[in-house]
Amino acid sequence: xxxxxxxxxxxxxxxxxxxxxxxxxxxxxxxxxxxxxxxxxxxxxxxxxxxxxxxxxxxxxxxxxxxxxxxxxxxxxxxxxxxxxxxxxxxxxxxxxxxxxxxxxxxxxxxxxxxxxxxxxxxxxxxxxxxxxxxxxxxxxxxxxxxxxxxxxxxxxxxxxxxxxxxxxxxxxxxxxxxxxxxxxxxxxxxxxxxxxxxxxxxxxxxxxxxxxxxxxxxxxxxxxxxxxxxxxxxxxxxxxxxxxxxxxxxxxxxxxxxxxxxxxxxxxxxxxxxxxxxxxxxxxxxxxxxxxxxxxxxxxxxxxxxxxxxxxxxxxxxxxxxxxxxxxxxxxxxxxxxxxxxxxxxxxxxxxxxxxxxxxxxxxxxxxxxxxxxxxxxxxxxxxxxxxxxxxxxxxxxxxxxxxxxxxxxxxxxxxxxxxxxxxxxxxxxxxxxxxxxxxxxxxxxxxxxx
Length: 452
Description:
five-stranded parallel β-sheet, 24% helix
């Protein structure tokens, strides 16, 4: 059998590894359009800030590792430019030789990932306008910051990357008052957002919420004009565009491959597409959301790895293979001194689904109040007052340990636990780790009072 895999990052490589474990004699070809493979894009903000010194540290497996240790041939700088599903062949462009060729397959795995979203008006060609999505983006930005004196920065977008990059700019001695985040809202759309606003204010970061950028204009090689939809504008030394990502599936938009309106590929629980012998995994795929009960586009690294492994194992015929179990949208991120987590759905989403939904938000000491360094954390729970079912949660905390409590709540969602079930949890306690009443239990006790 011959298996072609489009993409050289976690989803594709997990699939290729699963196939190789079962079939030493199968022909496997991984085609990656860029130079880098098997890297962690989540580490980019910390590379730019210089907490991670070398770009190589973000790479899990090199091309040589994959070929010598795992016996997986990887072709870098090879872009799949079209796929003929009827004839089961791909057209591939070799950037190094400037030549194109065709390659047939028995099985195809599409793992093309996602690309940075860009809208009209922001797509100007300027040396001081940056995206922060690939290792190329990261290297270009870090080199620029190290070689130029930057006094002001505008970040367009209040999502994970936009907020995680704040400390990177502060690391280059840019005053917080000269760093501006422009976004309709931040990651949270609940009262949890206030904790992010508070930590931003602590560092004097300028947050412009409920605001959108209409366009960018070149003033000079050193200056950019940022134009808002309300007619106002401001000038800055550097712009970072982080308004989200979209599935990298343009080459399939006029094919018979089933896609969501945004281009995310629809698969079944074994990562099979609607086309025989064609699988898809990773950030180009729509994942089934277990609470929303529909496919959604939530591109996250753990999901990509799981999906790739399942796709490869199913192709290889691995016995007793469990299907992909869906997602709950669990995520964790850092904003300056604040550690945040989320899982499940929001109050608004719960009401739209028809739940008799309510929420509680509590503040409590993350650890015992008398233990040195004790500070407050928050827990927000979304639940159905009629069935008592937990539907979602958000956490903000002063340490990674506090934010990682979100995993307890993600597990509770997976087990379809109720508020009453949460109250019964036997959670660990010692003064350096928690208050005697864990904040999750306190939130559950208060939520129970709202349940009918």
